[in-house]
Write a structure and sequence with these properties.
- The protein is α+β, with helices and mostly antiparallel strands.
- 20% of the residues lie in helices and 26% in strands.
- Helix 4 packs antiparallel against helix 5 and helix 4 packs parallel to helix 6.
Amino acid sequence: MTTTRIKLILAYDGTDFAGWQRQRRGVRSVQAEVEAAIAKIVGGHVHVQGAGRTDSGVHARGQCAHADIPEPFAGRVPWQVALNCILARDVRVVAACVAPPDFHAQFRATSKIYAYTLWHERGYVDPMRRRFVWDVPPLDEAAMDEAAAILVGRHDFNSFRNLGSPVGPRGTVRTLMGLWREPGSCPAETVWRARADGFLKQMVRNLVGCLVAVGKGKATPQDVRLVLEQCDRNHKLPTAPPHGLCMERVFYPGDPDDARAPGFAAPARAAAPAGEEADHDRRDAGSGGSGALGQP
């Protein structure tokens, strides 16, 4: 059967999903819902490949995916409109287009940006934001910047992966191109962004948990350096909860590094390196802002 590859940019509220990856029957996942929506249009199952496997409760604004659609549906169907008419309201197709046959959402990605949002107002959490922020006290941001600068670069991030998660042939070495903070959508919020050529499972949540511990005065930047150098996940620095995390952007060869493409919330300011590999979230990334900046 002749097929055409389409590229999708997806946004979703991860609160009620068990993550991106298809799960056992009766467990809701983003991948399964998008596949079911496509099946209603083409009359049969089509595999949808995502750029990364976001965990349960994690959100996305710029998840990229591809699917091979049977002819003549691929070129005739307005995929963004058609899928959004079928999908539940907590997952949307932000953009859709025909892709080259060799495009691969996972293996062609060169980097990703994840964002983690902190809420600092002690009197309340905005009910409209509670699903998307981690409620923390006011923090020592200068100390957090210092710790973030230590983490930027090419390192073995074994200390910041989910304990017990499998490690692929690439191992646990990644290049974190940037880890920086920016103002959030209101004065009570701060957003930490991370860009790298790949992320281990729960790596961003572990990095943010580490920074928050520093901001609370429960750890020092030098403690962070020691944890990083020990390459051992058995430490007491916390893991940030999933609901503050969002996949913002996936980069591919030829993408303008500062483009505000549909579905991508923030421009990147650091150069995106090339890389070859597949891992839990294949690739991710961070770039410059008001916090720590770095080059590999």
